[in-house]
Amino acid sequence: MANPGSENAENSDGSRLKDKIFLSALSLFAEYGLNGARMEQIAEKAGTTKRMVVYHFKTKENLYLLVLEYVYTQIRASEKQLSLEAIPPVEALVQLVETTFDYHADHPDYIRIICMENMQRGRYMQQSALLRQVNRSALDLLEIILNRGKEKQLFNETVNARDLHRLISSFSFHYVANSYTFTLLFEDGADEQAQRQHYRKMAVQVALRYTCP
């Protein structure tokens, strides 16, 4: 007869293993891409067997799609946590740009996963009903900030959320995605933290100059 609570303990152990497999997959997909990462590698990194990876996630492609959804969900969640509604619009925009830049810089695996998906021409993203819904919040947040700023005549009427999001994302994304080549070509020997603060400040300046009259 099982000990009281043993079933819950087994479920908890299974959940922890599933999480370990998932995080191992995220790391390996970021490093090697979908085609380069093997199920055996994922299992070994998670300290389990390929059979258990298949048990929890069925196929490598299914696991990859879940990872892709996860990295987008995480950055959108970080934006929602800012609670920018109570902050004046210009300050809200500044805080959003700074947070976006920092999130990209602190989560290079997020960038690599998205780079890999772009190399596959968005093949797996097209299969996800979740991703459009999740990422809509990025534009919704910017639209609220822009509308509040336009009411106070602080922002240009012609600026829209989609274009501003592309501007902020592109600056933040380039900083991480091209960090090795750009640094080797143009900033060899530069102080890494000083450069990060420089480009973070520059991202804010670019967004404000684009948005404000």
TrEMBL record:
Highest taxon above the source species: Bacteria
Keywords in alphabetical order: DNA-binding
Domain HTH tetR-type: 15-75
Keyword presence, Acyltransferase: no
DNA-binding region: 38-57
Gene3D superfamilies noted in UniProt: Tetracycline Repressor, domain 2
Protein name stated in the entry: TetR family transcriptional regulator
Species annotation: Leclercia barmai
